[in-house]
Amino acid sequence: MDFLYSYLILAEIYVLLGLSTNLLVGIVGIFSLSQAAVFGVGAYIVADFLLSGALPFLPSLATAAACCVLLNVLVTLPSLRVAGDYFVVTSFGIQLLATAAFTNWTGGTGGANGLPGIPPAGLFGFTLTDTWQYLVLTTVAAALGCLCFWLVMRAPFGRLLRAIREDELAVAAAAKGVLRAKVEAAALAGAFGGIAGGLYATFLSFIDPSSFDLDASILLLTMIVVGGARTLGGSILGPFLLLALPQALALVAIPTSIAAAARQLIYGVLLIAFALFRPQGLLGERL
Amino acid sequence: MVLLQLLLNGIVTGCALGVVAVSFALVYSTTRIFHVAHAGIYTLGGYLAWSCVTHGVPDPVALLLAMLACTLLGALIQAQLYARLERRGATHLIVLIASLGVLAVIQNVIAAVYSPNILQFPSAWAAGVVAVGRLRLTYAQIATLGISLAAFVAVLLFARLTLLGKRIRAVASNPFLAEITRLEPRRVYIYVIGIASAVVCVPGVLVPLDLGLQPYGGVTPLLTATIAMIAGGVGSFAGAFMLSVAIVVFQNLSLLVIPGEWSIGITFFIFVVFMLFRPRGLFASA
Amino acid sequence: MTEYLSVAGLRKRFGGLQALDGTTFAVAQGRITCLVGPNGAGKTTIFNVITGFLRPEAGTVTFNGRSLDGERPQAIVRAGVARTFQHLRLFSDLTALDNVLVGLGGQFGEEPLGAIFRPFHTARVQRRWREDAREWLAHVGLADRANERVRNLSYGDQKLLTVARVLATGAELLLLDEPASGLAAGALDQVMALLRRLQAEGKTLLVVEHNTRVVQQIADEVLFLHQGHLLAQGEPARIIADPALAEIYFGGAL
User: Fold this and answer.
1) How far are the Cα atoms of A21, A30, C104 from residue A165, in angstroms, in the given order?
2) What is the pTM of this model?
3) Across the interface, which of B85, B215, B275 has its CB nearest the CB of A82?
4) CB-CB contact of C150 with C92 (8 Å)
5) Domain map (residue ranges) of chain B
6) Strands (DSSP E) found in A38-125
7) What is the CATH number of domain B2-277?
């Protein structure tokens, strides 16, 4: 039972990441390779606060979310002002820089060995010790995330983002701020990513740089490409499917030495296949 | 003295990176596709050459065979993937995603087939050292410097003097017009990516000769190369090459004050400076 | 009569082409002024410069005594000058109502925090804005097409929708880029009636138009542009009757 719970918990954490990625890549339409970096920043911040005992769980989570919002704003604001492909290079650079920081800044992140022994989450005096308790937490978090996403998309902001996707010039001619809307969407995506990171850190109680590298960013992209871009359904389906993949692979006898490469290989194939044959993914709209 | 050695090392590696930058710029300025899979071709070239060399093929022949294979792969990616996507009206984003998929496939096939760990070239000659005063250069570095410069000049001459090169420049400067004249942009794209793949194979073999082969080792060079291309100004090959050398030299010199693992930070810092103050790059022609 | 909109000495070059070559003219308030001229005369370029989408190398644009030089497009619209596009640039996946709503300014919930933390307020306020948008659609004659996706609208209806969207911005000076082109007789009359109605309501219109019948019927004044500068200016009947101008416009064939 614990095994199923773990899968559900991780899937729900990745739903938050799926919402985050879908906001940036699906809805605003910018190719971001730094989603995992933001995830990692959130995770390490919460882990550091909890390990040092400086802040309890919820304030740590809020701080992580705020930092990730700031990170995304700082990254998107200057680069989106210039031409489109600038952001690709910027996010690419941020991802590699983050990996370097996670791996080498041993003081803050424990370096390549990561941070073990992260205390469990504590809410209102109650410490989460059992897996099913975490499941309640992540289910609530994922549900809140989905609610926010839904509210945002049906509000004028969502309409503005859809219009920007179609024709930025016409939006500017209608006196609406294009850059501002994109940065706001990126900020929201950052908040989701940071919170997902915090939940991840306390659930696994151990984090290391390998969960937040370029390969992880590729996995996040694959989730929304397969699940479906720009929709709530796609943001949910993608993570659940892609996280089940390693279990499916385990049924096929693949030597452990190449298991990781095999997974990443499949993600690559999925990206190519869906780009060619089903760009809207399973439950999404055309990317 | 350490300073001069760092400078020298920087120039050598910078020239190799310059070839990566120029080959990427060739693809980007013509097709407008941010061809991240290029990093995979760079990596694959090295591994294919390694396979040849470990089976007794002489080093220069191994390089040529690797270049041939890279050319074919690059042309295949354009003809079967990018061209198809374009026919289906794919957005820029979808093409980028597909290119990323190709990169992931190439890198991980290499990791699965060869090994995720670092492989070294068994070329004993490469380690030989030439001493000039207190400066030292390995034969691998000399080869890298010479061949990279030659490759760079070859690309410049090709673009300027040959018929195909001019055709490529024509398509790059006005794809719409190219479409309705007889320039056949689609065929040109295949040539461009084919040639660029052959060119990037050169540093793909030379750099690992010194530093070893790694399946995911193409990603950081590609990032640095794209930053050099942008800082140099899209459309200027010389700009891309010179900025590559400049960035790597700067990175190397910064080793005096900053540990090596943070060099990516240096590169990114340079990029941020350009993005904020001179986004069009130094020598933009478009 | 004070100059409502005036452009002076505009210069704009695109590579080897001098699109605007010292363009200077003024538009009076409350009138319909038509901008005519052969292709490549610079008409759309002028629109782009006035509305801030292009920066000229020289020259100034003044509206209501205020300089528009160097302003961002959004600021210029808020100052009261808005434009439509020759190629429509509607949001084809959105409904007609949504297209107009994008043009309506000052809506609550157009940023994420309001949308998330005050969802009921957002929804309530949205109802009011939707009513406003419906009124604009009704104003141009599209009241019954409000919930249609743009891709399902006829070309004539799409043209009317571009006018509704630009009206929603509340601008007093409307720059309309070929509002009547490509329309059949019935839709054409609808558009012309709409333009006259807008003038009667106090809007000032600067219209790029190729159709001489339209120009004759609605224009109070005609500006004839050629090779980036003003060649002639005056009443429609006079300009259209001028053989030298016709030569330039039609290349001799009439």
Assistant:
1) 15, 10, 18
2) 0.91
3) B275
4) yes
5) 2-277
6) 122-123
7) 1.10.3470
